[in-house]
Design goal:
Its main location: cytoplasm. Pfam families: Ham1p_like (PF01725). It is a single chain. The chain has one domain: Maf protein (Alpha-Beta Complex), CATH 3.90.950.10. Strands 1, 2, 3, 4, 5, 6 and 7 form a 7-stranded mixed beta sheet that branches. Helices cover 35% and strands 26% of the residues. It is an alpha/beta fold. The protein binds inosine 5'-triphosphate and magnesium ion.
């Protein structure tokens, strides 16, 4: 059997990489083998889509070939979608408790976790986006603090935070899983 073609997933985040690999292990029809490169790619300011497109373009230019990038946003509805794509710096500055405090005074604590994969088929190609969303609400931390804001989002209909779920459970309903399903469909059709 011919070896599967490789696709470079540019991320410095080991937790993202682990989840992508776990999800794809359950998806035997995925047409590429994912290999990781940790490149320092600038992340611009803008909408989640603008940030994702610029990052993928920059990574494809550095690699001079096809690549995959991923951006994760966490949008609080009461704050018109903020922190959104800026969640990484909000989390590192404010921590779990500070993110909760941002919503004090609002009755609406709902939030959307958004995962945006961007795929460039060559260094010059326009990035194509694949977006997955999962709804929840921001709560005081519950469960292990292994990955970002997992302990402070309780996922609708489960009564659990992402951090309280086994990997398998998160990977069946997560923003990342949903985005990866769309990417898989697209790449499978491309042949
Ligand atoms: O190299 P890249 O892929 O950019 O990795 P990153 O860690 O910088 O990731 P982002 O720029 O997309 O920032 C997203 C932030 O949200 C966190 N995060 C991403 N996915 C998450 C998930 O499924 N659960 C909890 N936190 C997550 C992540 O740790 C970052 O703090
Ligand atoms: Mg980043």
């Amino acid at each position: 059997m011919a070896a599967r073609k490789q696709l470079t997933f540019v991320t410095g985040n080991k937790n993202k990489l682990r989840e992508v690999q776990q999800i794809l292990e359950k998806t035997p029809s995925f047409p590429f083998e994912i290999v990781n490169r940790d490149l320092d790619v600038p992340e611009i300011q803008g909408t989640t889509q603008e940030v994702a497109i610029a990052k993928c373009r920059a990574a494809a230019k550095i690699l001079n070939g096809p690549c995959l990038t991923e951006d994760t946003a966490l949008s609080f509805h009461a704050l018109s979608g903020l922190p959104g794509p800026y969640i990484k710096s909000f989390l590192s500055s404010l921590g779990h408790s500070g993110l909760n405090t941002l919503l004090d005074g609002f009755s609406d604590r709902s939030a959307t976790a958004i995962c945006t994969f961007a795929y460039c088929s060559s260094a010059e190609a326009e990035p194509i986006l694949f977006e997955g969303r999962t709804e929840g609400k921001i709560v005081q931390p519950r469960g292990p603090s292994n990955f970002g804001w997992d302990p402070i989002i309780e996922i609708d209909g489960t009564g659990k935070t992402y951090a309280e779920m086994e990997a398998e459970e998160k990977n069946k309903l997560s923003h990342r899983y949903k985005a990866l399903e769309l990417l898989r469909e697209y790449l499978t059709k491309q042949g």
